[in-house]
Each structure stands twice: as structure tokens, then as C-alpha cells.
């Protein structure tokens, strides 16, 4: 209604053209036709509006609310209210029709006028120009040929390829001096130069040959392109998850600039039945309190449209703010998601078990202290490292000359002694193995320090280290720990696999315990045989039947022989402490969820299959994922499943539920037994370890170095997403990246 609508100059100036275009193309003049229009004016000269006027004056509008006439073009293009009454009549107040039928003095004709410069005619011309889009100034300015668009896309494609390659290689983009006369303008610009030098077409559209106002090489453009790539990677991950249930893996660490960062990884089963763990985000948190972490996680899920009610697992390390039963992160998430079951990282448990076991037995505890002491002395300076390398070369040459070492590509590498760390997985095994491999060169270096040390303290420490290294007890424990850790290291590597499932992990833990128990029962004789290796290192072999004497107290224990001491107090005590810690930290046999889930495992020809346990698993732990009708139907499916799938030739010799889930998809059985397939996916979603989050922090150390310590959080996150999920990022087409980049904001070049 012209009498009620806002005036055009009341709209924001940047919206007026769009509003005018909608009025012209979609709405048109408001020509309200009534059967009887109301009379107006004085009683002596009553008059009324006539619908026939709409045909004579197409620009005319009628307002029923004010019973007045308006001019449609003048409303659209009159910018301000004029002080003259006539100018206001057809725009603001509305015109009454007392002098319409007055011949040449008709008010409508007077409003139109014949002059091209009249306000009405100018408004008509503006309407026509607005309808013809190719006459618009911005269209004329931006109009470019097809070849120019091709050149612009080639120019941007080169920048995209350079940025993606640098992100894949974790390289920096910029340099401290990027001026045109700089010898090194940074990786990004230098890479563009290299690409241009190998392709004449690229050379014609990039760098100095590109438009001055659209080179697409500035730092903000680089970050925008990287953001587009990382956003596409997250979109792919989000599409992979779909509406499926997923698990949350979280860990936090400090970056190079001492900022607390939280790594967020999602574990889920894709449509093909594969277990995937995808790095999703890196979030800067102001503190590591559980409430702060929860807020950041839920905000990220909300932004990416991930339903928190679909969380079916949580995996963290043993930090109190994460695993606390009352105020920890897992407890806060359980309050909102009651079926997001928490699993303490199994790899952390194994590490804690090894560290605790090493401290329980005094001899083993002293061994690790002495091991660190020896490594610190040998690796204290560059000179000693060079001497260690020279000693290795001499030993390798000697062994090759007497045909005790094979030669070939990739063998007989020169190495260094590695230190053990309480928080570094497998580091104890690596440290023990490195010393065994470099035992003779280490003795040679210590001997040189004893003879040629510059100070008496260096010579004294080296002498003590040499005596420790060549003692029977030290070497005996060295070989013993190597045997034990060879068993546990296999479990370490298995637990860190992304596709590992909780049931197979617990099966591997049980197998590790069995192997260590076998070592306890049958390994002592092999340990005695290893004494033959001691003679290679010029170590004095003790008489096993002799009475044992405590070195520290110099007192003899009655009826305790040397063999009894090393067998009972060292060998058995070390293995028992390891078994005890494993039993304490891997007590999942007491957890009902694991017991019931074991009924799904296909190993040993489905020996553990139990319909009642599987139904009980659904009833107790996943009641919201199955309706009451589906719970009844599940029993029927399990009966058919037992006779059909278990006896199917393609479903034999499967060892894990992960393989079972994949085979169901490959054979099409997942569609028939869709409820069992759903339950398998829920169990597979349970976390095993936080190795993927640890790998994210390793990548963060590669990307955010001391020279790149001022990286912004968003830039760091985008670099990490592209670097870690390279397999996804490299499949994203360049055209898709260019189109998304063009849609981000108005670009100067037509793409």
C-alpha cells in the first residue's frame, strides 16, 4: 500500500538499488481495483477514483488506506522530500483527484510534463536503465572476455597449487624480506617463480605479468586459500560421518609460543565399514579446566552441525581434568550424553604399567638410573658423539672383515644412544635396544674418557660408568628387559593403529600377559644361555652356585646363591611386577560392557557368540539406539545370523569385529542384518588410544617452529588440517577451491 510502505530514502543506501529492482521486476505499481471507490472532497464537489485511470497512466498507484494516488517511478527514485507541495504529493502525502478531468490542466498530465528533464521523466528513465542490466556501471566495469576468465583461473590455480604443496610439506609460506629485489622472497613466491619458469602460459599470468590490483599473492590471500582448502577437508569429514555415531578423542599440549592447544579427533565407522580417526580441529583454550574444554568442544560441534547426542565414546589420557569421575571432562560430557562411554587410553596405561614396574624392583630401578647416567656421559658433547660414531665405524668394518655382518643397502646404520622418557611411548625399549646395539662402541668411548679426560671429574665419572656398564648384573638386566620389552612393544605398536578396536586390543593385552607368563615359566634357562654373549664383552661370569653377597652391605645371606638371587630377586621379581601392573591397569574383564561386547567377536570360529549377551548389551548400554520393536527383531536376526553368516565361507577366519563389519558390507549382509551391523559399528566406535591426537601434536611441532612462533591460531589450525589429512586434501579439485574462494567475498578479477 503506497500510503503505508516506508519511503525509499529511509532504506540503507547500499540496499536501495536491490529494493528498486524487486519493486520493478516482481511487484510493479500497486493498482488496487475496487468495485466502488469511496467519495471524497467537499459536499458541493464530491469526486471518486476511477479504475480506468490505470490504463491511461501505467505509473499510477492507488492507496486504499489513504484514498489517494501515488507515482510509482517517483517513489522509487525521489531521493529527498521536496519543500514544494506538488513534489511531495505523488510520493509522500498522496494526491487527490479534484482536477483530473480538466483537459490540459489535468493534474496527472501536469505531473508527467513534456520536458525530458522533469522529475517524473527522469524517474522513468532510471527505471528503464535499472531493468537493463548490461548498462549498469559495475557490469560494464567487470565485463571481461572468456579468455581473461581462463587466464584469471590459471593465475589463481598456480597460487592454489603452490599453497597446497607448501601445506603438504609443512613449509613456511613467507620470508622476512619479500621485496622485489630480495634474493629470497619466501617459499611461496619462489615456488611461483619456479612454476612460471617451467610453463610459458603460467608465466604470462602470474607475478609481474598479473594485473597490479589482482595478483593473488598477498599474505591474506594465501591464508584465505588455505582456509578454503581446510574447510573443504572438514566438509568431507563431516559428510563421511553423516548421521552416524562417533567417538571423541581429546588431548592438550603447549605450542612453541606457550599457548595451550587442544587437539580434537573424531573416530567413526564409515559406510564401507572401515574404522577411521580423523583430525578435525585444533582449539586454543585459555585454561585446561574441564568446563572450558567442554564449552570449546560443544561450540565446535555446533558450528559444524554435529549432534552431541551422537557421541558414543570418549578417549583421553589419565590427566585428572579429563578422567575425573565427578568434575572431569568425561563426567561433564556424560551429563549431556549418557551413552558417551569413557575409555582411558590403552597406550598410556601400558606406558604407566612399564614405568611403575621399573620402579617396583630395586635392581631394575637402579638399572634405569645407571642407564641414564651412562647415556648422559657418552652424549655430553659433540666430540664424544663423534668418537662414538668413529667407534661404530671401526666395529662394523671389523665385523664385515670377519664375515659376521651382512652388507647391503639400508643395513649397518650409524646410530646414537637414545634416552628413555616416562611420557614417551616405547622409549624405554628404544633406549635398551640402542645400548645393546652400541655396547662395544660405548665401552670404547668410556675407556678413552678414562684415559684422556681433561679433568679428574670427567675421568672419575667415566670410570664409574664403565664399571657399571661391564658389571654382570647390569648386562643381565639389560638382556632381560630387552626380552620383556620386545613382547610389550608389539602391543604398543598395535594399540597405536587407527583402525584398532577395543575388543581386539583387549585380546592383544591378554596375549601379551600370556607371553610374559610363558617367559616367567620357561625363560630362565634361555637367560642362562645368554651368558655366552657376556664373554664377547669381556664381562666376568659369576659362579652361580656361589653364595650371594650384597654389594652395598658386603654381607652374605645364608642359603642364598648367586643363581637364586638373579632368578628370584631379579628375573621372577621383574616379570611378576610387570604382570601385576598389567593386571591392575588392564582390568577390563571386570567391565560389563567389554564382557558383553566379546559375544560379537568372530575369532575362533565365533566361539564367543551368544545371543543373550548381545541382546543384554543393547538393553543395558545402547537403549536409545534401538526402538522396542527393533530390540525384539534383533533376537530374530541373531538366530538367522547364527546359521547364515557364521557358516558363510566368506565370513570364516576373521579375527576382529572390524574385519567382520567390513565383510558384512562387502557381502551385502549388512543390509539384511542391519541391526547387528548397527551394533557392531557402535562397539567399533569405542576408543582404544589417543595416538592420533599425539600425532597431531607431533605435526604441530613440525609446523609451528621457533621461527614461526607468531602464527595465528586459525592459520595454524588450517595448516594442521591440510597437513594431517593430506589424503583428503589432495582429492579436492582446484576448480572447487577456486569457486569457493570466489564465493567468499567479491573478487576484483572475474573467475
UniProtKB/TrEMBL annotation:
Q: Which domain of life is it from?
A: Eukaryota
Give the matching SMART domains: ZnF_TTF (SM00597)
Entries under Pfam families matching the protein: Dimer_Tnp_hAT (PF05699), DUF4371 (PF14291)
Molecular function (GO) terms for this protein are: protein dimerization activity
Q: Which InterPro entries match?
A: AtLOH3-like, DUF4371, HATC_C_dom, RNaseH-like_sf, Znf_TTF
- Domain named TTF-type is located at 45-143
Query: What's the protein here called?
Result: Dimer_Tnp_hAT domain-containing protein/DUF4371 domain-containing protein
Organism this protein belongs to: Cephalotus follicularis
Amino acid at each position: 500500500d503506497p500510503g503505508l510502505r516506508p519511503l525509499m530514502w529511509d532504506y540503507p543506501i547500499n540496499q536501495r538499488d536491490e529494493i528498486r529492482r524487486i519493486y520493478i521486476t516482481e511487484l510493479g505499481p500497486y493498482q488496487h481495483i475496487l468495485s466502488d471507490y469511496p467519495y471524497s472532497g467537499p459536499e458541493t464537489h464530491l469526486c471518486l477514483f476511477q479504475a480506468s485511470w490505470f490504463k491511461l497512466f501505467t505509473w499510477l498507484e492507488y492507496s486504499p488506506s489513504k484514498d489517494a494516488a501515488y507515482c510509482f517511478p517517483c517513489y522509487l527514485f525521489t531521493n529527498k522530500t521536496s519543500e514544494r507541495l506538488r513534489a511531495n504529493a505523488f510520493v509522500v502525502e498522496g494526491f487527490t483527484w479534484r482536477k483530473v478531468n480538466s483537459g490540459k490542466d489535468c493534474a496527472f498530465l501536469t505531473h508527467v510534463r513534456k520536458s525530458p528533464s522533469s522529475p517524473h521523466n527522469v524517474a522513468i528513465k532510471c527505471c528503464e536503465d535499472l531493468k537493463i542490466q548490461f548498462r549498469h556501471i559495475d557490469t560494464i566495469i567487470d565485463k571481461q572476455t572468456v579468455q581473461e576468465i581462463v587466464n584469471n583461473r590459471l593465475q589463481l590455480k598456480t597460487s592454489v597449487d603452490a599453497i597446497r604443496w607448501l601445506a603438504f610439506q609443512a613449509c613456511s609460506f613467507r620470508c622476512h624480506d619479500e621485496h622485489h629485489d630480495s634474493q629470497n622472497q619466501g617459499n611461496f613466491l619462489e615456488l611461483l617463480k619456479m612454476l612460471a619458469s617451467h610453463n610459458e602460459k603460467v608465466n604470462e599470468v602470474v607475478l609481474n605479468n598479473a594485473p597490479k590490483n589482482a595478483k593473488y599473492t598477498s599474505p591474506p590471500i594465501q591464508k584465505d586459500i588455505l582456509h578454503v582448502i581446510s574447510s573443504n577437508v572438514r566438509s568431507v569429514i563431516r559428510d563421511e560421518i553423516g548421521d552416524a555415531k562417533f567417538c571423541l578423542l581429546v588431548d592438550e599440549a603447549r605450542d612453541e609460543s606457550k599457548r595451550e592447544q587442544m587437539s580434537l579427533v573424531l573416530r567413526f565407522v564409515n559406510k564401507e565399514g572401515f574404522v577411521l580417526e580423523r583430525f578435525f580441529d585444533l582449539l586454543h583454550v585459555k585454561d585446561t579446566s574441564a568446563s572450558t574444554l567442554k564449552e570449546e568442544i560443544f561450540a565446535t560441534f555446533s558450528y559444524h552441525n554435529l549432534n552431541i547426542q551422537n557421541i558414543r565414546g570418549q578417549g583421553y589420557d589419565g590427566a585428572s581434568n579429563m578422567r575425573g569421575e565427578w568434575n572431569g571432562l568425561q563426567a561433564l560430557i556424560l551429563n549431556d550424553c549418557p551413552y558417551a562411554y569413557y575409555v582411558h587410553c590403552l597406550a598410556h596405561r601400558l606406558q604407566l604399567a612399564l614405568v611403575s614396574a621399573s620402579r617396583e624392583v630395586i635392581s631394575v630401578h637402579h638399572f634405569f638410573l645407571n642407564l641414564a647416567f651412562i647415556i648422559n656421559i657418552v652424549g655430553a658433547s659433540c666430540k664424544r658423539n663423534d668418537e662414538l660414531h668413529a667407534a661404530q665405524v671401526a666395529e662394523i668394518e671389523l665385523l664385515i672383515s670377519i664375515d659376521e655382518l651382512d652388507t647391503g643397502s639400508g643395513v649397518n646404520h650409524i646410530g646414537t644412544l637414545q634416552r628413555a622418557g616416562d611420557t614417551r611411548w616405547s622409549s624405554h625399549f628404544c633406549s635398551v635396544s640402542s645400548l645393546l646395539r652400541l655396547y662395544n662402541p660405548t665401552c670404547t668411548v668410556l675407556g678413552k674418557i678414562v684415559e684422556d679426560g681433561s679433568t679428574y671429574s670427567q675421568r672419575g665419572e667415566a670410570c664409574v660408568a664403565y664399571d657399571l656398564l661391564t658389571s654382570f648384573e647390569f648386562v643381565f638386566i639389560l638382556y632381560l628387559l630387552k626380552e620383556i620389552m620386545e613382547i610389550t612393544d608389539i602391543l604398543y605398536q598395535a594399540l597405536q593403529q587407527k583402525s584398532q578396536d577395543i575388543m581386539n586390543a583387549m585380546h592383544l593385552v591378554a596375549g601379551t600377559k600370556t607371553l610374559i607368563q610363558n617367559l616367567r615359566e620357561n625363560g630362565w634357562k634361555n637367560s642362562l644361555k645368554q651368558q655366552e654373549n657376556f664373554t664377547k664383552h669381556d664381562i666376568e661370569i659369576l659362579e652361580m652356585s656361589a653364595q650371594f653377597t650384597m654389594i652395598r652391605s658386603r654381607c652374605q645371606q645364608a642359603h642364598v646363591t648367586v643363581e637364586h638371587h638373579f632368578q628370584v630377586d631379579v628375573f621372577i621379581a621383574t616379570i611378576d611386577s610387570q604382570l601385576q601392573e598389567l593386571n591392575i591397569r588392564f582390568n577390563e574383564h571386570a567391565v560389563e560392557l567389554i564382557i558383553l561386547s566379546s559375544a560379537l567377536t568372530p575369532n575362533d570360529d565365533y566361539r564367543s557368540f551368544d545371543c543373550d549377551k548381545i541382546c543384554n548389551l543393547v538393553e543395558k548400554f545402547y537403549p536409545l539406539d534401538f526402538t522396542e520393536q527393533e530390540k525384539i527383531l534383533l533376537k530374530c536376526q541373531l538366530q538367522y545370523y547364527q546359521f547364515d553368516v557364521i557358516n558363510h565361507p566368506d565370513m570364516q577366519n576373521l579375527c576382529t569385529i572390524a574385519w567382520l563389519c567390513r565383510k558384512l558390507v562387502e557381502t551385502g549382509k549388512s543390509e539384511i542384518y542391519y541391526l547387528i551391523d548397527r551394533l557392531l559399528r557402535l562397539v567399533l566406535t569405542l576408543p582404544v588410544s589417543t595416538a592420533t591426537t599425539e600425532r597431531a601434536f607431533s605435526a604441530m611441532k613440525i609446523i609451528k617452529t621457533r621461527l614461526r612462533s607468531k602464527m595465528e591460531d586459525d592459520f595454524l589450525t588450517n595448516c594442521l588440517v591440510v597437513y594431517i589429512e593430506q589424503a583428503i586434501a589432495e582429492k579436492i579439485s582446484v576448480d572447487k577451491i577456486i569457486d569457493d574462494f570466489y564465493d567468499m567475498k567479491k573478487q576484483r578479477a572475474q573467475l
